[in-house]
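Subject: Sanity check before I submit

Could someone independently write out the C-alpha cells for this chain? I want to compare against mine line by line before I put it in a report. The sequence has 286 residues.
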Amino acid sequence: MRAIGTLSNESHAQIFGDFLYARGIENAVEPEGNSTWTVWVQDEDDLETARELLEQFRQNPTHPKFQEEAGKARLLKEEKERDDVEFQKRYHERDEILPASRPYGIGPLTIGLIAVCVYFSVQTKLGADENILRLLYISKYTPNHPLLGWLPEVRNGEVWRLLTPVFLHFGIWHIFFNMMWLFHLGSMIEARSGSLLLALQVIGIGLLSNVAQYFMGVSYFGGMSGVVYGLFGYVWVRSKLQPSSGYFMDRTNLILMIVWLFLCMTGAVGRVANTAHVSGLLIGMA
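---
Independent answer below. Compare away.
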C-alpha cells in the first residue's frame, strides 16, 4: 500500500476515499498527527490514476461527481458487508464438513485399557500362571457343570468374571496385535464420540462376547479380540452409514480383519475364541 497524498479536511478525506472505492480503487484514509489525513492506495497499478483524481478533487472538492460517487461507495460497502455475512454463514472449515480429516490423539481410556491388559499379562506371565488365571476366567468349571450348573462363581457374587477374560492374553503376539487394534480403534472412538461411549462398548461387548463363548462350551479363554472386533464392526458401519461422522476404515485394514476372522475359524492358528470374535463383531455392527 502506497501513500498518494494528504487532505486537510476529515470530511473531504472520507468523501475522496469513498469516491476512489466507487471507482474500484481499494484505499485507506488515516489521520496524521498534524491534523491531516493521508490517502493510501493498495494496488500499485492504481497509483497514477489515484494521484490524478486527488489533484482534481483538491481543485474542486464540492463538485457533484465526487458527492455522487461517494454515495455509491456507501451502498457498495453495505452490499459487500451483507455478502460477507452470507459468506460466513455458508463457510465451513474442512474439519466441519469432513471430520474424518481431523487427526485424533491418544484416548485416555484407551491407554488405561492397554495398561490393564499389560498389567494382567505380566501378573499371569502371559498365561503361564494358572493360579491367577483361575481367578479371572469366566469360570473354573466346565459349562453346565453336572453339579454346579452354569456360571457358579458368578451366581455366588464373583461378577467380575463376566468381563475379566478380555484382559487376559496368552503370548506376546496375542497381546501385541490386540493392543495395536485397541489403540487405533479405541482412540478413534474416544476422539469422535467420547470416552463414555468407548467404556460402554468395552463393557457391553466384553460381557456379551464372553458369555457367548462360555455357552459354546468353553470356560478357559481370554483376550481383547472379541471387543476389538466389536469396535471394528462399529467403526466400519458408522463409516458407511455416516461418512461425515469422522469414522473411517481403510480397505487394507478391512480386508485384514475379515481374512483373520475366517482364518481363525479354520483352526490354522491354534485354539481361538471364535464365538467371541463373531459375536463381538455382530454386537458392534448392531
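---
OP: Matches mine. For the report I'm noting this point. The first strand starts at residue 2 and ends at 7.
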